[in-house]
Amino acid sequence: MWxxxxxxxxxxxxxxxxxxxxGACHLERTLGRxxxxxxxxxxxxxxxxxxxxxxxxxxxxxxxxxxxxxEWHPEHPERWxxxxxxxxxxxxxxxxxxxxxxxxxDLFAGRSVLLEQAAWFxxxxxxxxxxxxxxxxxxxxxxxxxxxxxxxxxxxxxxxxVAFRPGQVGLDEFQQRKLxxxxxxxxxxxxxxxxYVDGHTDATGSERDNMRVSEQRAKxxxxxxxxxxxxxxxxxxxxxxxxxxxxxxxxEAARAAxxxxxxxxxxxxxxALAGV
Length: 276
Fold this sequence. Notes:
The protein is an alpha+beta fold. Helices cover 26% and strands 32% of the residues. The chain contains 7 helices and 14 strands. The strands form 2 sheets. The protein has a 10-stranded mixed sheet, covered by helices on one side. Helix 4 crosses helix 5. The longest helix is centred in the C-terminal third of the chain and has 21 residues, at 207-227. The protein starts with 5 loop residues before the first strand and ends with a helix.
């Protein structure tokens, strides 16, 4: 509950606006009397978000980004810390991906994004409210303009297999790069609503040990996806030991095929019904 300080909310008559200018895609909205927020997508550059104040009230230093569900939202009351935006006294507040896309996806999901920091003049807190009201229509036009952001086709990343060596539970550099590409797609596609991560082992060893190893593998993959910007609340972690082999047999080829974690993306129901 916001009990003190200075809060800037949007005017009820304001709405998110899309425009294309100088080869860039803009999604923007006025923040009451404070100024304006805009997401900017440019060819060859990561998504960027910035707040342009009429008069900067924040103290020097980073500004916290928090996602919060409005009272009408089915997830209410929930609140998530998203990270920090760069801020210099008297200047804009800004962030690049992955935070910029996380903020955009929160708005798409109907969550408010709050920017909070102490005021430079008294130390009292200042809060800017980025409202999700009237966001989706403008976002649809922005996404169409910015479609080249997508790093891959959905079919390329909808199902991803991560192979593990015997006894391996952490991720090597190659696996991290592979999963970072999946995370980049998830951040770019607002229609992805769930990311299922399943850990598996071969049949060597006891069932108890295999369950522990499959759990560690799944959590390593999920943790890296989250570190790469996939919202943790989107990720579903499961682990199965050796119960679901993809290749029968006890030779090394079969064991190697079964030592794995899988990542499966799920889109909104209307997209799945449409065959997307």
